[in-house]
Design goal:
alpha/beta; globular; seven-stranded mixed sheet; six-stranded parallel sheet; about 325 residues; 10 helices
């Protein structure tokens, strides 16, 4: 019996390829996949062979999938056939196999289409945990892709006020407001630094943002954040900046202001035993699924398109060339 998976066979070339199914190993769960989510920024970088990527081909992309357990290995104790599950780092594929430690049950009241966003939502959650955001602190979310829009929701749930969002596209600005941003700006807004100073000082008597969640992955976004942040602010580097093409005046914007610039890549997580400010990925997945269940996190308005994996070549060509690539694109593996 065959399955199918997306494969980057060489730079800028993606294809849907078949593979032979196998039995799960003793400690593995075998999952029939329903949906996988395209992570546009990461997958574009890897497909194009960008700086600070593995640059190894062929490779199977994709780190967020959901589906139903169809078989388990003899040593598996926590899952059984029929369980609905979220699986990390298993690739865009119609079937996948994962050690049970990398699998999380989806609550009954959470749909597959919402749960497929769990992995990408875990990145801004990681960053906001690292910031130790306090109720009543100001927060600016920079970049309104999937990371930023989930970041707005998570910061709101944590009590950030004022909550400010900065992003380019009007439709994403509207979504940020829908998710709870009290002020939404374009990065090209005239006198943006002064406006953020005025808003934060008027609202909580502190001039500048206490916390900045930088998800855009651009040096321009970081440079601007250094200017409108408050003294002793925390700036969370959450988007992957793969090209550092501008210098930073460390003395003026970091040293004198006492800023904390915190790298928040997923690889900085603890593998075991969550501690304050650094939960394991699995515990964050469980947290997000519970927040989706009670409505405090809503992926619905982040979904843009559900497509067939047979459109693999077309969708990745669009990803490489279209700066207006849709926000949340999901493969439906029942369509292959």
């Amino acid at each position: 019996m065959k399955g199918y998976r997306v494969t980057f066979i060489k730079p800028k070339v993606a294809e849907l390829r078949s593979f032979e199914l196998r039995k799960p190993k003793d400690n593995e769960v075998m999952v029939k996949v329903k949906y996988t989510l395209i992570s546009a920024g990461t997958e574009k970088a890897y497909l194009s062979g960008a700086n600070n990527t593995a640059q190894k081909f062929p490779t199977v992309p994709g780190y967020s999938s959901v589906g139903t357990v169809v078989e388990v290995g003899s040593a598996v104790t926590k899952f059984r056939p029929g369980d609905r599950v979220f699986v990390e780092y298993a690739g865009h594929a119609s079937y996948n196999w994962k050690k049970e430690s990398g699998v999380v049950k989806i609550p009954d009241d959470v749909s597959f289409i919402d749960a497929v966003f769990t992995r990408v939502a875990s990145f801004p959650l990681l960053a906001i945990r690292r910031s130790r955001l306090e109720i009543g602190e100001s927060c600016v979310v920079v970049g309104l892709g999937m990371l930023g829009l989930f970041g707005v929701q998570i910061a709101r749930a944590c009590g950030a006020t004022p909550l400010i969002a900065i992003g380019n596209r009007e439709i994403r600005q509207e979504k940020a407001a829908l998710f709870g941003a009290e002020y939404v700006f374009s990065p090209s807004e005239p006198n943006l630094v002064e406006k953020i100073y005025e808003i934060t000082e008027r609202t909580n008597s502190v001039k500048g943002a206490n916390v900045v969640l930088e998800t855009s992955g651009s040096m321009a976004g970081l440079q601007l954040a250094l200017r409108y942040s408050s003294k002793h602010a925390r700036i969370l580097i959450n988007g992957c900046n793969r090209v550092s093409d501008e210098p930073i005046d460390l003395y003026k914007y970091v040293h004198i202001k006492g800023l904390n610039i915190i790298g928040c890549h997923d690889k900085t997580r603890l593998a075991y035993n969550s501690v304050l400010g650094n939960f394991t990925a699995k515990r964050d997945y469980i947290t997000l699924l519970n927040l989706m269940r009670d409505g405090r996190i809503d992926p619905g308005d982040i979904l843009s398109e559900i497509i067939s994996p047979t459109q693999t070549s077309e969708i990745y060509n669009q990803l490489l060339t279209d700066r207006q690539f849709p926000l949340g694109v999901v493969f439906d593996w029942d369509q292959v």
